[in-house]
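Course assignment 3, question 2. Fill in each field.
Student: A.L.
Task: Predict the tertiary structure for the chain below.
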Amino acid sequence: MMMPPRRHRMTYVSPCVKYMIFLLNFILWLFGCMLMGIGVYAFHDKWQATGVRVETILDIILNISLVLIILGGIVFIVSFAGFIGALRENTCLLKFYSLSLLIFFLLEMAVAVVGFVFPHAMQSTLEESFTDKIIHSYRDDADLQNLIDFAQQEFQCCGLSSDGYTDWSKNEYFNCSSPSAEKCGVPFSCCINATEITGNLINIMCGYGAQELPVAEASKKVWTSGCIEVVRLWAERNLYTIGAVALGVALSQLLIINLAKTLEGQIELQKSGWS
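Answer field:
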């Protein structure tokens, strides 16, 4: 008696999932290339102008061009694995891609939990780790200086720590013992009104002598609270909005991880039918 032929389960690789992962990661790959290009250009320009010293991990974190290169490199590698893995149906690359996204997701969740549960401890850690280095490097790195000025203007703060505007006494240009004309002053970005009404020009001297004033008098002229504390208070006031955005990002990452694992499973299932 002849046995009926064995039926194999129908397997396929969803073109919708495949090309969705491919297109998304190809766009991210181009974005990573752009970040690296900008970072390399800025680093080369800075190297020729002033030279770059990288001695500690803080030197890397506070060097915006190096941060762009590192972030761009990570995006480049992970997204490359994603779109090549999807295009070539390579399960090894897809496993690397989904594992990388899972690690990023867990790190983001860890930072979010620490920031939510221990906001004051996180603020103290940031103040102790970054205040002195950032204040000292203010005039040594033009990119960092522009970033600090932008943050102080946008968040209406001055300095970083809970000492506020007196943080600038740690900078050699703004220290009260400095021979500079800026001694006992703060950067113009700390000023409540830094822009002249006539001519719309910035008065770079508006913060001169601010450190010599008591807080009550100084507060009429410059912002007196440190930026880290101001940002923490801003985050607490906008907790629901930040939480909604974070949840949206987290769900998007989980969706992409699920798509990658789905594609990986479809490929492995199809390959198993070949043997």
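Instructor remarks: The two ends are 27 Å apart (CA to CA). The chain is about 65% helix and 0% strand.
Grade: pending
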